Here is the input.
Amino acid sequence: MDATPIFRLAAALRRRRLAALDPVATQRRTLQGLLNRAAGTRFGREHGFDRIADVADFQRAVPLRRYEEFWNEYWQPEFPRLHDVTWPGLIRHFAVSSGTTAGRTKYLPLTPAMRRSNVRAAFDVVAYHLGVRPRSRMFAGRSLMLGGSTALVEEAPGIFSGDLSGIAAKTMPVWAGRFSFPGPELALLADWEEKLERLARESLDLPIRAVTGTPSWLLILLERVRELRRARDGDDRPYPDLDLLVHGGVRFDGYRRRFEALLAGTDAELREVYPASEGFIAGADRRPGEGMRLNLDHGLFFEFVPVEELDRPNPTRHWVADAEPGIDYALVMSTCAGLFAYVVGDTVRLVDRVPPRVLVTGRTAYGMSAFGEHLIGEEVERAAAAAAAALDADITDFAMMAVYPEHPGELGGHRWVVELAQAMPAGAAARFAAVLDATLSELNDDYRAHRSGMAPPQVILVPPGSFAAWMKHRGRFGGQNKVPRIINDAALAADLTGFVSQ
Here is the structure.
């Protein structure tokens, strides 16, 4: 049975509601609803939630906090039994997340309200897709979610932690099971290599209509499925009936060519999302590169702090009523999981105000300024994509780090470890480095100004599979784990350099 017509009707209704939505009024109501729900918690009492009447009151009463401050002040003393601490009731699930720079582990509360928020956000992506693909038969088959293991750790009786995608799969509504793959037994697998192989083989004969996941891991899966299908059927399309591929978690520029080649001959649409362990923030409702629409009515309240002010005692705090397009902001959220004025760690740039749409430009700690060059993540990603394009190659993954001078007269600079999908001729690393250098000089005035006092970029091209092997070596293999693109941690940089030099 094809259930798409039913979903198409619901999607049309949702799009009409979104079209009528007033961003400012919606976010004002969202914040007030969060304050009302959490007023009786320890956090709410200490910050006078019952006396807050508007956004300005909230910003005066509740200072910005990062994860470490929430953890040390509120969560860690009670962990794992958080009851009425920052959100009413007992927290029964924690999403385990690791940072992309130093790799530290975080435990983020995941409430039933947040799980419902995530489901609504996922449905909005479907609504956007069905709006531009009226002939879609997306629900005539299965949706494959390439997530982490559903094996959860019982931190205390009835309280569990684990991968966010694994918790989502474990707590999925019963009705959704008939549209999803993998099933419980395969989803439980923690051995990522075995899981990928079984996913590829067991999905080969299924009508896979949608796929979602992090690009680097999706590539591994889709290329393995294509290999199997080519050998058996002589068909280069991994999933011939694929209708939608949803990607998120990292910038897509360096992956786009490989995905377009993999999906050639299908009707699949690529659609970007902005998921985080703190909440499902946004989804693309237009074409690639035109920004992702913020999820304003899902129990998330957004603030925007100019990046250069983030560490000041009293930074300027904007919200959808007064944030301006074209400025890089640190994203701040208050959520239905008990986060209030929480610094997410991402930097975003508004491209529209009505409705608000954003581009993710990097991380607040995801930049490189070892020598005064002040590079941001977006510039690093664009330079890597340009260098790969100059070689007519595709990037699988890369990481950059600082190399400091050890002897008098030496210059410091950047080392790039780069994995390309294709074998490269001699001299390719030098060509890659030259394009990197030129592109960064064009994109960033500080880099250009300081470049004369730096060594040329050093590029190490590594064989296919190198980053996957390194992530496995670190215990970060598979699921939602992402390769750190800019490494400011000296020990982590040394570990990668030593690993690829073996």
About this structure: The mean pLDDT is 89. The chain has 16 helices and 21 strands. The first strand starts at residue 93 and ends at 98. The CA atoms of residues 240 and 266 lie 6 Å apart.
